[in-house]
Amino acid sequence: MNNSYALITGASSGIGLEIAKNLASKGFNLVITARREERLKKISNEISHEFNVHVDFIAVDLSHIDAPSNIFTFCSEKNYKVEVLINNAGYGIKTPFHETSMEDEENFIRVLGTSVIALTKIFLPSMIKENKGKIMIVSSVASFSPPSSIQALYGPIKTFMNRFSDSININYNHKGITSTALCPGFTVTEFHTASGVQDEMDRVPSFLKFSAKRIAQEGVDAMLSGKQICVPTKTYKTLVFLLKILPMSALSKLGSKIAPGRYDQN
Prior knowledge:
Elements: E1 4-8, H1 14-25, E2 29-34, H2 37-51, E3 55-59, H3 67-77, E4 81-87, H4 102-130, E5 133-138, H5 154-172, E6 177-182, E7 187-188, H6 191-194, H7 198-202, E8 210-211, H8 212-224, E9 229-230, H9 234-245, H10 248-258
Parallel strand pairs: 1-2, 1-4, 2-3, 4-5, 5-6, 6-9, 7-8
Helix pairs in contact: 1-2, 1-8, 3-4, 4-5
């Protein structure tokens, strides 16, 4: 049996689930992770049956410091060679920064940041040995935007993840390894409800909302072609261009129009 696998975190819904399906349709075996074990089991069976690939799962909470090593041990003990690593898991915190506990902030940073670094570090040696590997870090258009009044750390962490992805490319492209920062805009998933910002999402103009399936398709294609950064859709490519050239005062006005609630005063 082919023991080459793609590992996907946060694969139980949204972009992560669609990436899993997309890779399976291309013949990749999968290891999927998330917190909900029963949901992972169901998804594994469905994807395996539909695409005739092997799918295994491990339920972990990436806010726990030992989660990355547990994932690595799981794959090692089953002799799964991870050639594609998708760092997708994430969520948001709606509570204003000054009201959020430090424990909540640390867990948030661990899921969106530290676990990405840990998983990349722990799976890199085998990729180096094989002289090949594909890494995706699911970032956000928020990485190019001014930090918002809700989810105060979300944008800054995503900016950090973009730079981390750059560092992987600088240091390991010559080893046959590429990292792609996938930076979607507003995507229709369970993310906003789970993060307590569905009201703000509902106020976003419809032309700025895209399906998780489309985002996954553009992201996977970019990763497999070795593209270093992917901003899906022409709409968001244009928006990111504007974010790079407009002054901060104009960005605040633009943000209040296209992302209602994100720049309100708490």
